[in-house]
């Protein structure tokens, strides 16, 4: 990245910055900053309809349209500079909707509040809309949050903002959740980091389009420090069990801290432990007999140099996909054991830094960061969801609809390019399941280039067993190895499996769930009053939206639940079994209409029974809408 001192808001310095600006977000940012709607000329309004599927530079604007937009941007920003760089005016909602419409098209009034939320602007508080400013809870009301990752931090920020006494318990020695544990080579986001950030904290100073692990971790650490959250967080504190006391309407939380066991009490508990925190090792005969170093990607051994060694990686999921290109060049040989190949979407910017001019503008132009994030959000808000919806009349194998088949053809054409001259890899890297039947991964050519190296071998034969020094496949091939790395995912469907949770009437949470975890709105569970979950059952995303957005929506819903307690002078609330069952039936019915939910497709989203316990199958807007109002008729309240 070049010296940002080269840029300014006047003359050549401005022109140099604008040459690298992302115009679909810049022009509405300028309109909002200056109040001058001439920035929104239709001549350079991008068509973002299919950007999520076929990303194009500058939203697909022609060179002429880009030049016109830059000229207008230079004029308006030079004028703004000459006026002393005044603060943005307070614009009425209709004008804001017009500016937002430059990105989204005509703004549906039903989603205007969601759009304002994602811009970090105040959402009008109305019937069931907006975050309550006062909850009306007793002064001694205590909340415990389990986990100081992405969801735990946003919970703490909201609770602190509302003056609610709370403690965040984190078993790791650092904050950051999965970003603390996953420090393997190549670890990075596979969603835009601008979407993987909070609507209320857009001062990240991102340097990449898809940030590496350390950059994401730094974002969370700096946010916690700047927002005063560290005083609420107890690190190296492991929660072992939760037990509900009906007589007192309190949760008893047993913890281990500094080797000592002790208990806390809280009126409400918010679980922010996530889904991807318990590594899954494969059930392969002889796995423990291997005498060389062996580890899961989420438990990376930095003390074992791989240079010159014979390394085997079992799995080609998201973590292995990132690890393999980073280690292929240093090992003597790399054997990749693949059960099923991933679908891969071509993403040229996946490993790129932001251009210096764009980085400077994002840091220096008020509001541009938020609008850049907003445009990224809108591209992904429904994203590729329509490509994953099942057409019940579609009969072609390997796809679930005409759109899904169209996507498959595009992805196969990209495979043709990636593996030109290597028909062996072209065959091995072609999935036999529909696109979005499993998690789709991103590649800028790094993955395919690594697999084409002369020291890399892809093995698709099923593994029969592991010996002291080798992996033996069912066909009889033997692969001698010095190191085995497991990229075999997590026990994702086993929610809260590290905790013993006992609810009202002595009900055990895991016994109630069995292998199919379920939660009303993804947040509440019958028999467990005042226990709330973030990133709970059926709140994962695969084709649309943002996990950060979902966590924000969920904690805001929890705040509304707590406000309903305050309004009634009640101490506890519990969702009814009937309401929870109705919700689950609705989720299951839609899931069967998604590519990842159809029979015959195996993925980590499904439990042992085949039910999808992970994913949200409807639109992002549907999730936003359902979470704006607490249906108190679905709950029981205790005084």
Give your account of this protein's structure.
It contains 19 helices and 21 strands. The relative contact order is 0.13. It starts with 10 loop residues before the first helix and ends with a strand. The model has no long low-confidence stretch (mean pLDDT 92). Strand 9 (310-314), helix 9 and strand 10 form a beta-alpha-beta unit. The protein is an alpha/beta fold and 639 residues long. It has three domains: 4-107 and 355-381, no CATH class; 142-278 and 492-589 and 608-638, FAD/NAD(P)-binding domain, CATH 3.50.50; 287-343 and 385-486, FAD/NAD(P)-binding domain, CATH 3.50.50.60. Helix 6 packs parallel to helix 17. The strands form six sheets. Strands 3-2-1-7-19 form a five-stranded parallel β-sheet, with helices on one face. It has a five-stranded parallel β-sheet with strand order 8-17-9-10-13, with helices on one face. Strands 6-5-4-18 form a four-stranded mixed β-sheet, with no helix packed on it. Helix content is 32%, strand content 14%.
Keywords:
FAD/NAD(P)-binding domain; 3 domains; single chain; alpha/beta; five-stranded parallel beta sheet; 19 helices; globular; 639 residues
Largest sheet: 5 strands, parallel
Q: Which CATH class of the largest domain?
A: Alpha Beta
Q: What is the mean pLDDT?
A: 92
What is the CATH topology descriptor of the largest domain?
Answer: FAD/NAD(P)-binding domain
Which architecture name of the largest domain does CATH use? 3-Layer(bba) Sandwich
Our measurement of the CA-to-CA distance between the termini, rounded to an integer number of angstroms, reads 60 Å
- Count of helical segments? 19
| Count of folded domains | 3
Q: What fraction of the residues are assigned to beta strands by DSSP? A: 5-15%
The main sheet orders its strands as 3-2-1-7-19
How would you name the CATH homologous superfamily of the largest domain?
A: FAD/NAD(P)-binding domain
Radius of gyration: 25 Å
> Which structural class is indicated by helix and strand composition?
alpha/beta
